[in-house]
Amino acid sequence: MKAKAILQSGKLFAALGAASATTAHADDKQAPPREFAAKVHYCTTCHGVSGQGFRGFYPIPRLAGQQPDYMKNQLLAFTQKRRTNTIMFSVAHVLSPEMLSALSSHFNKLDPKPLGGGPARLASEGKTIFTQGVSATNVPACATCHGDTAAGNGEIPRLAGQLSDYVVAKLANWDKERGQIASQPDASALMEPIAHGLTPDQIKAVAAYVSTLE
Amino acid sequence: MRSRLAEALLIAAASTILFAGLASPAGAEDPAIGNCTWCHGGGAQGYLPAPRLAGQQRAYLRAQLERFRMHGRDAPASIQFMWAAAENLSDGRMRALTDYLAALDTKPAMDGNPALEGRGRDIYQNGVADENIVACVACHGPHATGVGAIPRLDGLSHSYLVRRLTDWQNGYNRAGATPMPHIAGNLSPDQIDALSSYLSNTRYAGAAR
Q1: Helix axis angle, A33-47 relative to A97-109, nearest 10°?
Q2: How far apart are CA A167 and CA A163, in angstroms?
Q3: Which domains, ranges and CATH numbers included, belong to chain A?
Q4: What domains sit in chain B, N to C, each tagged with a CATH number?
């Protein structure tokens, strides 16, 4: 089981390399400026005027500063149903490859303050989990992949400033939302055992911590 | 057209009653609650053109009363009725009033066009991505019950929903209502009719969050 997981991770990293090599070409073609401006306005209606996130009925995630490769992969994951979300399926399936690239790099450049609103008293416990992991359940330090400042890298998402209730909802529901096509494993498979290794309280703590990071 | 006329007559009639209510001596009945019933109905289920308040999100009710007091809601009906109605509400009385209203049971208006419900549901649940129209469900929730300062919409009257959306299109109520003025601006009259029909004919039986 473990060997299979490692093998799968190896395949994943190969796939990640291939994905970033192909996306370079899509950037050559530009999204039409007026359509792009209208689309940005459309995204920020829900995700906040500066992409800082918004609390509607559901927590709507921060996009500001997000890694472009992660964002592109998630938008594709919605359309391919690797990631289940009916709202974002509708949103993403009309985006051209050049619009996808343009939006991803646009939101990456935004840098508003975190939206806040998370439980601050849990942040110090969360910091310990983030920087040291949880050895009892074999959870590695989050910082290993997401970076010391939680800025993310490539297809590994930025977590800094993310809405804590969003992070909690994702980690609690990981294998029902992500990696939904067994024959097309993606980077989300790396997180699955980690999400399982965290208790609900640990999830809340680590989510509270990352939500405060700028 | 006929409903427009009916609405105008009701506004005229109700304004006479409202100010009669305001002028009545305090003490006999709680004036803050007494006045509301003239337009919103004794059970706060709404009465043309006043919306249903029963079961509405309390934080939303509070925020709107605040906006009437501050004149941030500036559509004609708001100016005519609600500015004066909210003017003398103390913070304590406002809290008591909104707590009371939020706890009341609701009835759906059921005055939408049933033939448009399917189209309305599709816009509500999925949006129209090609036209940059966002899905209402993201903020108002799968059963349109709202949350916090985001209003409950299920079972509100068709005419009220149409009026709120077109008021935004006409440039009213823009202060403090982000992102609704922008969202409403993208909707066609047909889409507004369909959405309002779906919502007014919907009732969520469970408790709102």
Answers
A1: 60
A2: 6
A3: 2-210 (1.10.760.10)
A4: 2-102 (1.10.760.10), 114-200 (1.10.760.10)
What's residue B144's pLDDT?
96
Q: In this complex, how many residue pairs, one in chain A and one in chain B, have their CB atoms less than 8 Å apart?
A: 54
Amino acid type, A172: A
Distance from chain centroid for Cα A99: 19
Q: Are A158 and A166 in contact (CB under 8 A)?
A: no
pLDDT in tens, B63-118: 999 999 999 999 999 999 999 899 888 899 999 999 999 999 998 999 999 999 99
Please, which pLDDT band fits residue B33 given cuts at 50, 70 and 90?
Answer: low
User: Residue B138 is nearest to which of A39, A42, A60, comparing CB atoms?
Assistant: A60
8 Å CB contact of B137 and A38: no
Helix (H) or strand (E) holding B30: none
How, if at all, do strands A54-55 and A59-60 pair? antiparallel
Mutation test of the interface with chain A: which of B57, B121, B123, B134, choosing the one with the most A Cβ atoms within 10 A? B134
Half-sphere exposure of A192 (CA within 13 A, CB side): 17
Tell the burial category of A113 from Cβ atoms under 10 Å away from its Cβ (0-12, 13-18, 19+).
exposed
Tokens of A112: 């508003």
**Eight-state DSSP code of residue A169:** H
pLDDT band at A28 (very low <50, low <70, confident <90, very high): low
What contacts B205, CB < 8 A, 6 or more positions away?
A: none
Tell me which DSSP letter residue A59 carries: E
What's the ipTM?
0.79
Question: Letter for the amino acid at B59?
Answer: A
Q: How would you label B78-103 residue by residue, b for 16+ Cβ within 10 Å and e otherwise?
A: beebbeebbeebeeeebeebbebbbe
Instruction: Report DSSP state, residue A122.
Output: G
Asked whether B150 and B140 are in contact (CB, 8 A), the reply is: yes
Residues B1-31 have pLDDT tens digits of 445 444 544 444 444 444 434 434 444 455 5
Q: What is the Cα–Cα distance from A64 to A76, expressed in whole angstroms?
A: 19
